[in-house]
């Protein structure tokens, strides 16, 4: 051993150092490789858009973001159901101000709801998919051009849907047609009308690319048993199909006041429902704990599931979190409820299966529980956990889908359009069809048909996020309420823009009504 | 790759050239002033075989040391506690008295970045080194799946509880880059270097040290529903509407309810004296050729509140060998087990379960009822265990007498396990189970080669080259289960039948699975040199190149450097008034390492389609999603290394034979190119963008004065050490040249401090509607558009636009103290000694969120968030109910929001941290012929006294964001009796 030292002594000190540094240098050049670490929890740009799995994950991501945008803070109902609606709140001043329309209030909840970022996240993700997914077709033979075309069509429908939601909530909003990826510009708001035109064009351009049923070999557009690896059982009611696109188009047109188009699109849905397997529902199915809102089905024309079987149930993002209380869940009183006297005003007719008072004075209802109590519980939707009826409610996880539209809704929308277009006979036929299924007689001829249609929407779609938007369309058609006309003309029907949003886009200014 | 090769070549050329320089070679470090008395810094003995010493390559660690002798008499379990008040420029935060909790934190020389999230705290921490092993930090990985980030899931134990003062030789604080630079980018925020006692040649030596004592219950004023009712009454009388009267809380409405209206004696069960103890022993011995040391320790710390405690079991073994004259082998292994009994607060429980039940009725303040509630805990499981294993194996080849090559291998591994079961009785009818298993692992491969050369016996040249490779792994698995079949099945049972579809899936509970993993690599090479002349002049330089996997590939490598010089005027000053005068200065730059791997990836995709209160949504329709990180923010390219430049200059002064010594140091520290999350255009879909370009300046002065009273006789002595540090920070630049950003209730403005509060200025109350001002356009003063009414606060309309909004908020206060320090004194008389330590934070502010919360009862009653949880400590009176105006608590303008100046308080304090009385029996026992070579007995009390103007519980119990939320447990007074024996 000693010889090592002796040998070393032979070298000059400097050369000793040189050897060492040479070694260090080699180590150093080798270590750049060592510093390449593939992250286990994120995917970088290089590793993305390579195969069909990326396409599927991204596609689901856009839907997932849209579901979150609708669900967070229970926004879907707070926007649609509360303002000037049928519900009252119990000890929740932040809900009170929404009900009374004081939307510039500074409660954190109201501030959060006035922020539209969540919808733009969906739009950005959809733009990104449209821009990048075609690359995969060349890289992965499993991902066919047709498959890509259908996926992109869905993305456009989602974009259109988001712009429709934005327009009906905030009115004038900026249009982002690209993802911009890191160089995010400040873009001016476009007028509500332009936004609706943009939304309509997005969907119109692709609606005929969409299948009626995903994962079915009988579908005329994309006959295959496995769409993205799964059959129709998995996809029914989950993805936007041809009917979804037309349903959304009908609503865009109706909101813009283009009732002719609204009628055409709605008619398409009603006529072609069979191709998707969509159907009208019995009231008992709608209100069952494991019925319409629990299952995903193509009868949910535009809907977002929170499937229990996939561990996607949540506390927030369901009407149940607002409306249910003891004994259904372990919460003493509900956040929102419909007072008894208002229930009686809404459901005036005999034999209505949703709610009626029998001859002996007792109530029959599939919509309400605890009617005799101080706070009647609106239990039309009550999918507690896996939807077992009578489940103990100590863990208030809910798995009900957010349903934007179903057959009854489209039928009533078409009826509304037909009345505006003067085709009262047809309209009454549609209305009576819905009424009949709920135990009611045909509507009497002497009533205002439009009033009757909106009254029916109010009853049938109670708690489904439509009340405020129905009211706006109704008042726009009637123009008989000066106070409301002021709201319509002064943009008071829209939400103010959140301060956080204004702070970061110098091109925006607050809606004049809320200034 | 090519670039790196070029670089390597460059480095090679550079290093083989003649770079002069460098910092002090170890054995050349002259004596300097210590943080306290009694510590010599000379790390190497003047042993004859100096070149064959155990650790010749141990770097020079400077002169800032902790007074270990004083620490040994305190029952401090964690490193942070040991450091409190001891050294200038070291700031310790202990916002909870819960023993062993992760909520402890130390900062050296100010804040490196604004604290917006808990991750920012981690990025500001100094590096902790034990015997050369750079210790791995707890990961922040799990925050990504937590809806509430009170603390990380898992055991949440402070990993810095693995040090025992009786086994520590020295703790150095490396504040500037003359000493810290050698530790590389992890050392940008400073280094705390712990040297344990090592094996020594000589006769078998046994030491036994022990203390036993109690954490004593705090004195608190309790309140009951009667107090609360009376407190609320005036608000109800004046402002309540019928609806609000109807919603009067049930627990307050029935004054015959003894549970709430009876005695508030829950404290009997909550605050209890708990034992704290420590017994440790060491055995050392061996020959010059091979020697060893064994250390064993069993210790327990307690919190005196909520039955909290922590136990530590530790064993360490050190072995040194000198098989041949030119080869030294030294090794250590230390194993520690930390078992923690955590608090039983509702807020932390719900923070984990992420499920908020009905909160309308708080726990009753009555002892019997609270006892029933606590009994339910008998059914629960709450195990929190951390196992730490540290090892090092070092070789030193003395190739020549003055040429050493030292390869070393270090390992730091810790495992974190938490098992939980909470019965349905505690969780409003729904039981909960969770299992967490996580580990952090660091392997370090370190090589140094150094060469020393002496010219004419006058000047020394020392050069060293080092190469270091570190590999980190952080990983966890977490299973949560809700709603099991009953309270007897307390574990998540999985299906064992492999034929079944749900094989290995949980049965019984509703399960959620999470896992995550992160890998880091860091490679470094450095070259340094020191030149010393006549022990008067010392010059040093260091250049290093660091490559990290956590930085983007285009910017992977970063060059850092440090230069320093010292000049000692001792030889020139023959004056007998001065004992010494020395000037020192250093200037350096160090890169800062990211703590996650997200920045390295650039534009990326994640599985993140949930929302703020439901973060963990991985799938849609059961299929994994992949999207851009819209919620956590866009990450682009062009995120280079951020770095810190620090300049340091100081003067050492000594008077008259070293009786008074002082050191004053000035520093200027710039953190540049800091990556920060900036709120971005909402229409991009992203909440933030991660952008580089933030710059923060910290400057300050550290001052230490030591006084050694000239003892007239040997029987009397007085040593005193005073330290004070001033620190001030300023935001110098924001990314993209922005002037200010608003983020999370804060505003960061260029030119202002980074730790300010952003508050409304309170100027009283509008008694009636008519008092609310109206401008000439008949516009009534509004708050964010809502008209103000009688009973609303009179807030200053700073910009005069008749709307109170964020533009009217002003930046005020600072949550980092401007002055920190301590004052230590030790008096000796014969065999007695008495010492005390005062510890202070001055010019520091806090928002009293606890008071705000009590006044904000209207929103708390309605709230359905974690912040409206009322724990049993709700029944403590910690605020002055007459100190704030009576606003209308139901007003929509949120009159009792925390962010207003009436809740901003001066949180300065001076504390009597410790008082110790000791008696040295050594001479007595020696006379009696006992075998002890030393016997010392002491009585020590800690946390004894606080002087403060702060109106809340304790100005230390303020979280990292400057808010006193009331979550932290009180810091208990402790009293221990201890003995130190050497055989």
Summed up, what is this model?
The complex is a heterodimer of chains A (515) and B (983). Helix content of chain A is 49%, strand content 6%.
Describe the protein in words.
The complex is a heterodimer of chains A (515) and B (983). Chain A has 22 helices and 11 strands. By secondary structure, chain A is mainly alpha-helical. Chain A folds into 3 domains: 50-87 and 110-280, Alpha Horseshoe (Serine Threonine Protein Phosphatase 5, Tetratricopeptide repeat); 319-400, no CATH class; 406-489, Serine Threonine Protein Phosphatase 5, Tetratricopeptide repeat, CATH 1.25.40. Chain A has a two-stranded antiparallel sheet. In chain A, strands 3-4 form a two-stranded antiparallel sheet. In chain A, β9 (368-369) and β10 form a beta hairpin. Chain A is globular, with a radius of gyration of 28 Å. The model of chain A is unreliable at 1-14 (pLDDT under 50). Chain B has 983 residues and is mainly β. Chain B is built from 16 helices and 43 strands. In chain B, a hairpin with a 2-residue loop joins β21 (619-620) and β22 (623-624). Chain B is globular and about 95 Å long. The relative contact order of chain B is 0.13. Residues 1-56 of chain B have low confidence and may be disordered. The interface between A and B is large, with 110 and 113 residues. β1 of chain A pairs antiparallel with β20 of chain B, so a sheet runs across the interface.
């Amino acid at each position: 051993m000693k010889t090592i030292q002796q040998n070393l002594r032979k070298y000059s000190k400097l050369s000793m150092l040189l050897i060492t540094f040479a070694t260090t240098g080699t180590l150093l050049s080798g270590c750049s490789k060592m510093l390449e670490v593939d992250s286990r929890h994120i995917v970088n740009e290089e590793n993305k858009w390579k195969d069909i799995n990326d396409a599927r994950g991204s596609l689901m991501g856009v839907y997932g973001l849209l579901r979150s945008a609708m669900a967070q803070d229970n926004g879907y109902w707070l926007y649609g159901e509360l303002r000037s609606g049928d519900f009252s709140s119990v000890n929740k001043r932040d809900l009170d101000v929404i009900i009374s329309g004081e939307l510039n209030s500074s409660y954190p909840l109201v501030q959060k709801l006035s922020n539209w970022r969540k919808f733009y996240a969906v739009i950005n993700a959809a733009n990104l998919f449209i821009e990048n997914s075609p690359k995969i077709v060349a890289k992965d033979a499993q991902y066919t051009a047709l498959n890509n075309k259908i996926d992109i069509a869905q993305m456009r429908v989602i974009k259109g849907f988001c712009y429709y939601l934005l327009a009906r909530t905030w009115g004038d909003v900026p249009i982002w047609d690209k993802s911009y990826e890191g160089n995010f510009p400040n873009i001016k708001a476009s007028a509500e009308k332009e936004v609706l035109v943009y939304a309509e064009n997005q969907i119109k351009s692709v609606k005929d690319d969409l299948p009626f049923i995903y994962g079915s070999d009988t579908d005329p557009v994309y006959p295959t048993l496995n769409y993205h690896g799964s059959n129709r059982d998995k996809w029914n009611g989950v993805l936007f199909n041809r009917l979804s696109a037309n349903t959304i188009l009908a609503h865009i047109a109706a909101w813009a006041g283009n009732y002719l188009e609204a009628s055409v699109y709605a008619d398409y849905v009603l006529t072609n429902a069979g191709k998707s397997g969509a159907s009208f529902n019995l009231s008992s199915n709608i209100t069952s704990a494991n019925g319409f809102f629990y299952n995903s089905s193509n009868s949910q024309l535009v809907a977002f599931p929170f499937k229990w079987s996939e561990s996607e149930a949540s506390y927030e993002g369901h009407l149940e979190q607002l409306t249910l209380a003891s004994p259904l869940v372990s919460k003493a009183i509900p956040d929102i409820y419909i007072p008894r006297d208002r229930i009686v005003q809404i459901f005036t007719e005999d034999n209505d299966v949703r709610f009626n008072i029998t001859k002996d004075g007792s109530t029959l209802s599939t919509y309400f529980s605890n009617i005799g109590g101080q706070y009647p519980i609106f239990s039309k939707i009550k999918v507690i956990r896996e939807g077992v009826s009578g489940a103990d409610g100590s863990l208030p996880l809910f798995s009900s889908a957010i349903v934007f539209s179903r057959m009854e809704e489209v039928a009533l929308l078409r009826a509304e359009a037909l009345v505006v277009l003067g085709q009262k006979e047809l309209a009454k036929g549609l209305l009576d069809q819905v009424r009949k299924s709920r135990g009611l007689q045909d509507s009497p001829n002497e009533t205002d048909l439009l009033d009757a249609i909106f009254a029916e929407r109010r009853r049938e779609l109670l708690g489904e996020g439509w009340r405020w938007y129905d009211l706006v369309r109704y008042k726009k058609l009637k123009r008989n309420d000066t106070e409301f006309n002021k709201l319509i003309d002064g943009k008071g029907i829209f939400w103010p823009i959140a301060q956080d949003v204004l702070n970061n886009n110098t091109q925006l200014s607050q809606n004049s009504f809320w200034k | 790759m090519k670039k790196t090769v070029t670089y390597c070549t460059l480095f090679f050329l550079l290093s083989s050239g003649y770079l002069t320089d460098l910092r002090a070679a170890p054995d050349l470090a002259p004596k300097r002033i210590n943080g306290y008395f009694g510590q010599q810094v000379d790390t190497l003995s003047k042993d004859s075989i100096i070149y064959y010493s155990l650790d010749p390559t141990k770097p020079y660690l400077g002169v800032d040391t902790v007074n270990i002798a004083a620490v040994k008499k305190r029952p401090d379990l964690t490193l942070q506690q040991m450091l409190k008040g001891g050294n200038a420029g070291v700031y310790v935060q202990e916002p909870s008295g819960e023993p062993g909790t992760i909520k402890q934190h130390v900062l050296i020389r100010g804040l490196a970045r604004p604290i917006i999230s808990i991750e920012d705290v981690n990025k500001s921490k100094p590096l902790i080194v034990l015997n050369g092993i750079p210790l791995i930090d707890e990961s922040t990985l799990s925050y990504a799946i937590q809806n509430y980030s009170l603390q990380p899931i898992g055991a949440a134990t402070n990993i810095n509880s693995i040090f025992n003062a009786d086994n520590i030789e020295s703790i150095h604080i490396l504040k500037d880059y003359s000493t810290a630079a050698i530790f590389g980018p992890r050392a940008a925020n400073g280094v705390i270097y712990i040297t344990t006692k090592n094996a020594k040649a000589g006769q078998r030596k046994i030491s036994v040290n022990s203390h036993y004592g109690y954490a004593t219950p705090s004195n608190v004023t309790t309140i009951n529903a009667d107090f609360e009712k009376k407190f609320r009454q005036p608000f109800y009388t004046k402002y309540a509407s019928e609806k609000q009267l109807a919603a009067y809380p049930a627990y307050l409405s029935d004054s015959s309810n003894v549970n709430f209206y009876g005695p508030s004696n829950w404290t009997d069960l909550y605050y209890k004296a708990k034992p704290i103890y420590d017994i440790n022993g060491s055995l050392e011995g061996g020959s010059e050729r091979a020697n060893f040391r064994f250390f064993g320790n069993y210790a327990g710390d307690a919190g005196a509140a909520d039955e909290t405690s922590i136990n530590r079991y530790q064993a360490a073994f050190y072995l040194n060998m000198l098989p041949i004259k030119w080869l030294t082998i030294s090794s250590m292994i230390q194993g520690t087990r930390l078992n923690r009994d955590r608090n039983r607060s509702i807020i932390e429980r719900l923070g984990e379960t992420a499920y908020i039940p009905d909160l309308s009725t708080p726990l009753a303040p009555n002892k019997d009822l609270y006892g029933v509630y606590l009994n339910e805990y008998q059914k629960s499981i709450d195990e929190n265990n951390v196992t730490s294993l540290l090892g090092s194996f070092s070789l030193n080849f003395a190739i020549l007498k003055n040429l050493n090559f030292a390869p070393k291998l270090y390992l730091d591994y810790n495992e974190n396990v938490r098992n939980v079961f909470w019965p349905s009785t505690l969780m409003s009818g729904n039981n909960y189970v969770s299992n967490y298993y996580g580990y952090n692992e660091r392997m370090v491969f370190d090589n140094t080669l150094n060469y020393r050369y002496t010219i004419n016996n006058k000047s020394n040249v020392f050069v060293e080259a080092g190469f270091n490779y570190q590999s980190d792994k952080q990983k966890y698995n977490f299973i949560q289960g809700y709603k099991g079949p009953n309270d007897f099945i307390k574990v998540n049972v999985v299906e064992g039948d492999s034929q079944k579809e749900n094989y290995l899936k949980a049965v019984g509970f509703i399960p959620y699975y999470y896992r995550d993993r992160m890998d880091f690599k860091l490679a470094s090479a450095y070259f340094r040199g020191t030149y010393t002349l006549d022990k008067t002049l010392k010059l040093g330089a260091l250049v290093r190149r660091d490559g990290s996997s956590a930085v983007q590939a285009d910017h992977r490598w970063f060059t850092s450097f440090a230069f320093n010089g010292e000049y000692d005027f001792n030889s020139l000053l023959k004056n007998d008034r001065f004992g010494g005068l020395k000037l020192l200065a250093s200037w350096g730059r160090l890169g800062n390492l990211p703590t996650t791997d997200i920045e390295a990836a650039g534009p990326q995709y994640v599985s993140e389609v949930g929302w703020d209160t439901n973060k963990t949504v991985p799938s849609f329709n059961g299929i994994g999603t992949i999207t851009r990180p819209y919620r956590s923010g866009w990450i682009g390219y062009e995120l280079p290394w951020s770095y810190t430049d620090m300049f340091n200059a100081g003067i050492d002064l000594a008077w008259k034979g070293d009786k008074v010594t002082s050191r004053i140091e000035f520093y200027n520290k710039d953190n540049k190119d800091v990556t920060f999350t900036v709120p971005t255009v909402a229409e991009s879909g992203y909440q933030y963008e991660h952008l580089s370009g933030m710059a923060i300046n910290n400057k300050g002065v550290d001052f230490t004065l030591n006084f050694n009273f000239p003892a007239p006789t040997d029987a009397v002595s007085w040593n005193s050490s005073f330290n004070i540090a001033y620190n001030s920070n300023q935001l110098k630049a924001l990314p993209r040249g922005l002037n200010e950003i608003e983020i999370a209730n804060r505003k960061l403005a260029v030119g202002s401090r980074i730790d300010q509060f952003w508050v409304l200025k309170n100027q009283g109350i509008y008694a009636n509607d008519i008092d609310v001002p109206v401008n000439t356009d008949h516009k009534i003063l509004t708050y964010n558009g809502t008209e103000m009414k009688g009973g609303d606060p009179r807030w200053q309309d700073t910009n005069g636009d008749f709307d109170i909004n964020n533009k009217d908020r002003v930046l005020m206060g600072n949550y980092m103290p401007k002055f920190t320090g301590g004052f230590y004194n030790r008096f000796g008389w014969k065999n007695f000694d008495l010492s005390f330590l005062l510890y202070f934070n001055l010019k520091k502010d806090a928002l009293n969120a606890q008071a705000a919360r009590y006044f904000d009862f209207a929103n708390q009653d309605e709230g359905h968030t974690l912040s409206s949880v009322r724990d049993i400590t709700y029944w403590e009176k910690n605020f002055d109910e007459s100190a704030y105006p009576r606003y209308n608590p139901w007003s929509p303008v949120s009159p009792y929001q925390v962010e207003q100046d009436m809740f901003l308080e001066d949180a300065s304090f001076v504390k009597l941290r410790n008082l110790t009385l000791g008696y040295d029996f050594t001479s007595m026992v020696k006379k009696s012929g006992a075998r002890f070579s030393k016997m010392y007995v002491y009585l020590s009390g800690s946390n004894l006294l606080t002087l403060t103007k702060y109106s809340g519980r304790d100005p230390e119990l303020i979280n990292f964001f400057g808010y006193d939320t009331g979550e932290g447990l009180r810091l208990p007074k402790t009293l221990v009796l201890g003995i130190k024996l050497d055989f």
